[in-house]
Design brief:
212 residues, alpha/beta, Maf protein, 6-stranded mixed β-sheet, 6 helices, 30% helix, 21% strand, globular
């Protein structure tokens, strides 16, 4: 199937996520509207997986707006912390969304477990994108990128845990990369770099007619 030209809701109240998804949608000529700009409610994330949380957010936005809605649920999973913070990545930043504090918490817990060598600091970002249509149909697309956590944080680009995440095969953290470098993909290009871009590529190929 393919989405018809027209408006689509980015069902996120996180300005960083909404901006990145809007940038990825830009080449396709859709009229992008944010959930915050439309005054849509922000549902509780009660799912047990990234896919479940993305789906409930997309479904809520589609129901409330009557428009196709694209939602993201993503996070950082640290091997030495048994996959934490995982789906609770945003909650580690607290109500103030203080990711500096969240990164310090990750580093503190790694040190408490003796995870100081790079091989003990393996982690991955996961992104689940969910598209919900007003008729109730929901489809999910998942992307993942592996890397190593560094300390201290490096770079002030991106958002969230980007400044401590060094993707495999690179010498700069996500926080040190431009949006173009981090997304790493546009229609007709090769493999995407970020977890969000990798999930988006799957969505774009199926629903936006993007080339393989």
């Amino acid at each position: 199937m393919r989405l018809a030209a027209g408006p689509i809701v980015v069902a996120s109240h996180n300005r960083g996520k909404a901006r990145e998804i809007a940038e990825l949608l830009a080449p396709f000529g859709l009229e992008v509207k944010s959930a915050a700009a439309l005054g849509l409610s922000e549902p509780d994330e009660t799912g047990r997986t990234f896919e479940e949380n993305a789906s409930l957010k997309a479904r809520a936005a589609a129901t409330e707006s009557g428009l196709p809605s694209l939602a993201d649920d993503s996070g950082l999973a640290v091997d030495a912390l048994d996959g934490a913070p995982g789906i609770f990545s945003a909650r580690w930043a607290g109500d103030a969304r203080d990711f500096s504090a969240a990164m310090r918490r990750v580093e503190g817990e790694l040190k408490a477990r003796g995870a100081t060598d790079p091989e003990k600091r393996r982690a991955h970002f996961v992104c689940a994108l969910a598209l919900a249509l007003p008729d109730g149909r929901v489809e999910s697309f998942v992307g993942r990128v592996d890397g190593t956590l560094v300390w201290p944080p490096r770079g002030d680009g991106g958002f969230g845990y980007d400044p401590i995440f060094l993707p495999d095969g690179h010498h700069r953290t996500f926080g040190e990369m431009s949006a173009e470098e981090k997304h790493g993909w546009r229609p007709g290009a090769g493999e995407a770099l970020s977890h969000r871009a990798r999930a988006f590529r799957k969505f774009a190929r199926e629903w936006l007619g993007a080339p393989a």
